[in-house]
Design brief:
The complex is a heterodimer. By secondary structure, chain A is mostly helical. Chain A has helices spanning about 5, 15-20, 30-40, 45, 55-60, 60-65, 70-80, 85-90, 110-125, 130-135, 140-150, 165-175, 175-180, 200-210, 215-230, 235-240. Chain A folds into 2 domains: about 10-135, no CATH class; about 135-240, no CATH class. Chain A is about 55% helix and about 0% strand. Chain A is globular and about 60 Å long. By secondary structure, chain B is of the alpha/beta class. Chain B has helices at about 5-10, 30-40, 75-80, 85-95, 110-115, 120-140, 150-165, 165-175, 190-195, 200-205, 220-225, 245-250, 275, 280-295, 305-315, 315-325, 335-340, 360-365, 370-385, 395-400, and strands at about 45, 50-55, 60-65, 70-75, 100, 140-145, 185, 215-220, 255, 300-305, 330-335. Classes of the chains: A mainly alpha, B alpha/beta. At the A-B interface, helix 6, helix 9, helix 10, helix 11 and helix 12 of A face helix 3, helix 4, helix 5, helix 6 and helix 7 of B.
Chain lengths: ~240, ~400
């Protein structure tokens, strides 16, 4: 057996394969293609250097405390190029990550949270079911916030959207226009954006989204959301914000 | 007062009196690559060329924090949902006689969305960052970043732009189409670093005694975990082994900083979780943070320095209290609001505490603030708006 045979993972080496392939309908070639897309991102090699299996990232990870989730397994699967397990993680695990980057405590210098960011991008770009589910009821918000230049707006604070935040939300919602006008900074009198943004600035932002391909990606998601929106309009969280 | 290193090391451990970061493990100083690319004409570096203060960052390095002539890169979540946060930052600047710009030529960093949904890419994120830097550069003012996530994300963007030629080329092309240069600032400066740098000046203007106020501090993950070397570590605070951010400001104002075991944990914000899976957020924030703080430190207030952390720690407590009437809540605010209150700011007209959820009134009483009188003043001011006597309240109205 050549040395390279040890370095090149095969389907039989895969931990997920040994446990039984969890997505047998998806060809291995497709799983390999998706992994290659993750791996060819320029940032991938800045995020992965190997794994000591020490578990420091898991100890620091908030999501590991509340979900069946492990940043160590993310780093290990990527390092072993275990395309079966990586695919399974893209469908089942990556949206549990809190993106706090506590896992950067890794003594090896890994960035499991960063690897997850790349895996999420690939999941979104390839329309994986996990991405559709994770972004359901949320994509039109993405469209709105990416096009208005601020991520959240004061008018998002509505009692039926945040019932668990207590009565202060309803009060803010009721008094929103008045209380925004009571803010001393002149840029803060807005209700539909976080602050006042000039039209020229928004045009520049649009050009950035357009030229980098992000606008097409967001528009596609918004179209997909509209289909969902027609089915579940009564419960759609997006509707509450955009209407 | 400083927090002795024993607090970190434990009473029976014989640690060295002095702690020094080992050069061996320090990452390369990004400035070298930044200035090299500047010299090659690949990018423009906006220098800190006005009056500034050097503050200690990790690995024994220093960072220049400009005092004035600043361009305030606002935060979506602060301006949108915690408006007393940004208002307090501006109010403290004004009280210290420091002039600044609150621009309309600024977009969000869009990182909240990126970390929540990944509906973007490296080039788009970098271009958004650089467009904002270019907008600041055009004014000649230095950017001060309000949001912890913007700060962390921009540090990531800087790292990626310095490391990857292809990304730099792509972003430069996008910037050229906007008629802007590829600009990176000499330092990435978070507003809380400005408060750290100005803490003694702020303390000189203190009019309320905080010596009876106990605080816990939640350092924001994206401030010091993302690109970890570029954050304030002060040898005088926790022996330089934890970030000194927020803690040192609270101490300068005479408050007692109390420690708790889960200080390293995140708040539970989660970016997408706070929007669509808040059961995780609520559980983490209340069980791992608020409950631990209360049991171990029993503070009067918990202070933090980021948008998501204030939102999560504050708003999550209502459901915990609804489920368990014995759940002891803790008021939550930024150190900017805390410092503003110390300097005599109005709790509603400036600090906008009525936008907060956890009960802050016992804290105001302990600070010697008559919150009923203050609320009456706020209502009187807003009544003028309702009667149409004024369209907006002004900075002059805020100082009653």
């Amino acid at each position: 057996m050549s040395a390279s045979a040890h370095l090149t993972p095969t389907r039989a080496d895969s931990a997920a394969y040994k446990l039984g392939t969890t997505y047998p309908d998806v060809p291995l070639e497709e799983k390999q293609r998706l992994f290659d897309e993750v791996k060819t991102d320029e940032r991938f090699h800045d995020y992965l250097y190997g794994c000591y299996e020490c578990g420091i990232c898991v100890a620091a990870c908030p999501s590991a405390r509340y979900y069946d989730f492990s940043p160590r397994r993310i780093a290990q699967a990527a390092a072993r190029e275990d395309v079966e397990l990586v695919y399974q993680q893209m469908q089942e695990d990556i949206w549990d990550c809190s993106q706090c980057f506590s896992c950067l405590r890794c003594p090896r210098g890994n960035n499991p949270g960063g690897i997850i960011t790349l895996m999420r991008e690939v999941a979104v770009n390839n329309g994986l079911e996990s991405a559709k589910q994770a972004l359901r009821g949320y994509t039109r918000i993405i469209y709105k916030i990416m096009s208005t230049g601020t991520q959240v707006s004061p008018d998002m604070l509505q009692a039926d959207a945040f019932p668990d935040w207590g009565p202060s939300v309803a009060l803010v919602s009721e008094k929103l226009d008045l209380w925004r006008r009571a803010l001393p900074p002149e840029t803060h009198h807005t209700t539909t954006t976080g602050w006042q943004i000039s039209t020229k600035t928004l045009v520049e932002l649009y050009l950035i989204w357009h030229k980098t391909g992000a606008l097409a990606m967001i528009a596609e998601l918004a179209r997909a959301c509209t289909a969902c929106w027609r089915r579940s309009w009564r419960t759609c969280w997006t509707k509450r914000v955009t209407s | 007062m400083t927090i002795p290193v024993e607090k970190v090391a434990g009473p029976r451990r014989q640690n060295k009196a002095e702690f020094r970061w080992s050069d061996e493990h320090a990452p390369a100083d990004f400035h070298e690559r930044l200035f090299e690319l500047e010299q090659k004409g690949e990018l423009v570096v906006q220098r800190v060329d006005t009056e500034h203060i050097e503050v200690p960052v990790k690995y024994g390095r220093t960072k220049k924090v400009p005092i004035g002539h600043t361009w305030h890169h606002k935060s979506c979540g602060q301006c949108g949902h915690i408006p007393g946060y940004s208002t307090s930052i501006f109010w403290v600047n004004r009280k210290l006689g420091i002039e600044y710009e609150d621009p309309t030529d600024q977009t969000s960093c869009t990182a909240w969305n990126y970390y929540a949904s990944a509906t973007s890419n490296a080039a788009a994120q970098a271009a958004v960052a650089v467009r904002n830097f270019a907008a600041a550069y055009e004014t000649g003012r230095f950017p001060i970043i309000h949001c912890g996530t913007s700060f962390g994300h921009y540090k990531e963007v800087r790292q990626e732009l310095l490391a990857h030629d292809h990304l730099r080329d792509e972003v430069r092309r996008v910037m050229e189409s906007l008629g802007k240069p590829l600009v990176l600032p000499e330092e990435m400066v978070h507003y809380s670093e400005w408060f750290y740098a100005m803490r003694h000046e702020i303390a000189k203007h203190q009019v309320r005694d905080f010596s009876n106020i106990a605080v816990t501090v939640h350092p924001a993950c994206h401030y010091y975990k993302l690109v970890e070397g570029d954050a304030i570590y002060d040898p005088e605070v926790y022996g330089g082994q934890r970030t000194a951010i927020v803690s040192e400001v609270a101490q300068a104002l005479g408050a007692e900083v109390r420690d708790y075991s889960t200080w390293f944990d995140c708040c539970g914000f989660g970016f997408r979780h706070i929007l669509v899976t808040r059961d995780f957020t609520r559980s983490f924030a209340t069980q791992r943070k608020i409950k631990r703080m209360k049991e171990e430190a029993d503070p009067d207030v918990t202070l933090t320095h980021d948008t998501g952390c204030v939102t999560t720690l504050d708003k999550s407590q209502f459901a915990a209290k609804a489920q368990d009437p014995n759940f002891a809540t803790i008021p939550v605010m930024s150190e900017a609001q805390f410092a503003a209150l110390a300097m005599g700011a109005h709790p509603y007209l400036v600090c906008q505490l009525h936008w907060h959820a956890a009960d802050y009134k016992p804290l105001l009483e302990k600070m010697g603030i008559d919150h009923e009188k203050a609320w009456a003043q706020f209502e009187e001011a807003t009544a003028r708006l309702e009667r149409g006597e004024q369209q907006y309240l002004t900075w002059e109205d805020a100082d009653v």
